[in-house]
Amino acid sequence: MIFKRIFCVPAIYLCLMVSVFAQKVELKETSSGIDFVIGNQSVLSYQTAVADVPEGIKKDFAKSGFIHPLKSPSGQVLTRIQPKDHYHHYGIWGPWTRATISGREVDFWNLGDQKGRVDFSHVLSKKVAGGAAELNVRQNHLDLKAPESERIAIAEDLRIKVKPADKGRYMVDYTSTIETKIPGGILLDDYRYGGGIGFRAAEKWGTDNSSVLTSEGDTRKTADGTNAKWIIVQGETDDTTGESGILFLSHNTNKAHPEPLRVWPEDNYNGIGNVFIEFTPIRHESWELLPNKRYTLKYRMIVFDGKMTAAEADAYWRAFVK
């Protein structure tokens, strides 16, 4: 295990398990982005550089502004980018899909359509304090086919904060604040995908070796389209326990909370590498963004090895909203 060490004091036959989380969470700049590091282990990377696509794939699918890799405490990679079935899927990210701007449809999600995209713009601030590390960045939602010229449709301030949790786990606060300056505003149309926080899971996860559970007791067979306060996604890994996962929490101040979910059915793409979930606040109802008004969505992830119970998830959610 990476995040625990055992020190023994023979004189009194006392063994103390000391968490490496007693160390600071640090920030480290790399050629591709900014890493959150605990001990000597990078646990989360925010991508500031454009991630190129494989040869032969449209360059429009290359992008920046996403989380990958995100690793479990023992170093298991839980995210995936650019899968062959959806080259526009990028680890943990949250573009809006169908938006109406001055009567036109703009899609920030499906990069291949060349209508819109979301990319990293610049770092707003960085901070390391109190055992935690925090990164604030600007992401621009670009309207690529605006009548005059390409323009910023939505400015997003994304705050990512990483700090220790109990039982050798760690937590990630993911707070998105969006604003438009377009006269007349933007309508984020109701659709099964878009916004919030999306997660494309590790390639090895599929129907037979992973599971989903929501706060309302729904599993992967029944969760799609339901509303939930939290959702656990866990599956087989090379950790000594055999499993790792992420608990996603939606804050009770979020739009449409308990928040609607998009959860891929079990038979998607032959059952291998087919795990995708998303909190989608516009799934059942459109959302009007008025100009020069800021809107915030708050999420938290608890990243773990082993299993997580529904009772633990409830306790994490209560602590989050408190």
Describe this structure in words.
Keywords: Signal. Residues 1-22 form the signal peptide. This is Methane oxygenase PmoA. Pfam families: DUF6807. A hairpin with a 3-residue loop joins β3 (25-29) and β4 (33-38). The strands form 5 sheets. Strands 10-11-12-13-23-19-18-16 form an 8-stranded antiparallel beta sheet, covered by helices on one side. Strands 7-15-21-20-17 form a 5-stranded antiparallel beta sheet, with no helix packed on it. It has 1 helix and 23 strands. The protein has a single domain, classed as Beta-galactosidase, Chain A, domain 5. The protein is mainly beta and 322 residues long. Mean pLDDT is 93; it is low at 1-21. 4% of the residues lie in helices and 46% in strands.
Helix-strand layout with pairing:
Elements: E1 4-9, E2 14-19, E3 25-29, E4 33-38, E5 41-47, E6 66-70, E7 92-93, E8 98-101, E9 104-107, E10 116-129, E11 132-143, E12 151-164, E13 170-179, E14 186-188, E15 197-200, E16 210-214, E17 227-228, E18 230-236, E19 243-250, E20 259-263, E21 276-279, E22 287-289, E23 295-305, H1 310-321
Signal peptide: 1-22
Keywords: Signal
Protein name: Methane oxygenase PmoA
